[in-house]
Amino acid sequence: MKVKRLLSAVLLFAVIASIATVSFAVETRAAEERAVSQTVGLYEAHISYPSTGSGQVAGGPIRATGGYSPWFQSSVSTVNTNYCLSTSGYIGDLGNCKGTYMVTTGNTARNYFTYYTGHGGAGIYYYIVAGGANYSYDPYNVRGTWTPD
User: Fold this and answer.
1) Nearest one of 74, 39, 59 to 147, comparing CA atoms
2) How far apart are the C-alpha atoms of 127 and 45, rounded to whole Å?
3) Strand 122-132 with 81-86, pairing
4) pTM of the entire structure?
5) Residue 95 or residue 6, greater confidence
6) Closest to 135 in 3D by CA, of 49, 47, 76, 57
7) How far is residue 115 from each of residues 34, 41, 98, 121, 140, measured CA to CA in Å?
8) 138 contacts 46 by C-beta, under 8 angstroms
9) CA–CA separation, 140 vs 149, rounded Å?
10) Which of 7, 27, 92, 98 has a CA positioned 20 to 30 A from the CA of residue 49?
11) Could you give the percent of the chain with pLDDT greater than 90?
12) Which has the closest alpha carbon to 128: 69, 96, 88, 93?
């Protein structure tokens, strides 16, 4: 009789432990998905003529979580456009972008930023900034995805 009770207790403990393990794994996966979804954002901006050299915030802020491979990927091909990441929510001049070096492109490939020395890392909020790169163009729109990580 004691053996049956002991086996029942061991079996009950094993069932509870497996439920707790599955629950923990599901919650861990959900937390990882939330973290990823919070570090990749959308951007969109209307680049109007003439604004060469000037930039506008197209998306953000997104809080960096410690990665050092910031990127953006346009969903539309455009004329060459300047992009950078900035810690400021207002940018008048792309030369004042504080965060990354400027990237100029018009393609839909994934493009990577390079942080200035002392930037990047966890806890810093970044905005993606876009502006016209040419001196002669018709107004156009840019949009896509980006991350500071």
Assistant:
1) 39
2) 12
3) antiparallel
4) 0.72
5) 95
6) 49
7) 25, 18, 9, 10, 27
8) no
9) 27
10) 98
11) 42
12) 88
